Each structure stands twice: as C-alpha cells, then as structure tokens.
C-alpha cells in the first residue's frame, strides 16, 4: 500500500540560477514551499507529487531585485501567489535515478516539464522517524510562463537570460494518511 509523505522544510531547499548580463549567474531560492508525495520511496513508478511554492517567498539576497521579481514584471505574486507542480509520471533510469514529469503552473500558464531526480536513500532519525531524501534538477524557459521582462544591453544580449535552472534537495517524513 502506498504511503504518504510530507516534505521537511528545515532539511529541504528549492533553488534556482539564472544568467545576468550574459556573463554572470544570480542564485536564489524559494523560502516557503509545501510538498506532498504518495508512493514507495524505492519504487516511484506509481508515486505522485504535488509541489506548492509561495511566489512571494523568492529570495535572491537583494531586496530591490526580490521586490521586482514579485511584481507584475515577473511572478505577479499578488495575483498569482503560487507556483504549482503536479506530477504525471516517474520514469526509472536505473540506479536510483528518475525522470519526473508533470504539469507546472506559473502565472496561470500550465506546461509540461521534466526534472531529473535521484533517490539519495532512507534512514531513521534519532526519534525513530523514517526519512527519505531526494535531489533533483531541471531547467525551463521563463518566457513560456509570461515572465518576459528584460532589458537589452548596449554591447548586445539581454540583462536576464530566459533559461532558469532549478535544483532541489528534499527530505520527506512519512505521515498518517
């Protein structure tokens, strides 16, 4: 029987990287998110995952930039407070590696995206709770979701790349269904 899992936010992160001015990379993270999963950690074929990220929790270590990212130029966090991902399939690649495919919704636009996921293992914590860890990565085109703001650079190119790379480190705890 499939089990239900809740992400442990104190031991998890959802981060991203995007090129700035075509020469450097800016990193950031979403501080508030909820992830629920159902399935068996060692057999994800029938597993399901729902990820809900608070758009306003974006943090790039720069208040002005964060406020701009929350504005209508980017996430429009007031009107679209959540980024949501619903899995549609896990495909085993062997050796604890998977392709996780699902529907990602940002700013009211839903598109299918695929992320690479690796099962890192399971262990009991000092209080007897079984923990399960996963890491993953993927990328998307932010313009596909209406995040199209940009500025042309005098020397050519643009201020913000359209490709955004995501990484996540997640630890789950089994919960009562």
TrEMBL record:
Domain Lipid/polyisoprenoid-binding YceI-like: residue ranges: 4-173
Protein name: YceI family protein
Family: Belongs to the UPF0312 family.
Lineage summary: Bacteria, Bacillati, Bacillota, Bacilli, Bacillales
Source superkingdom: Bacteria
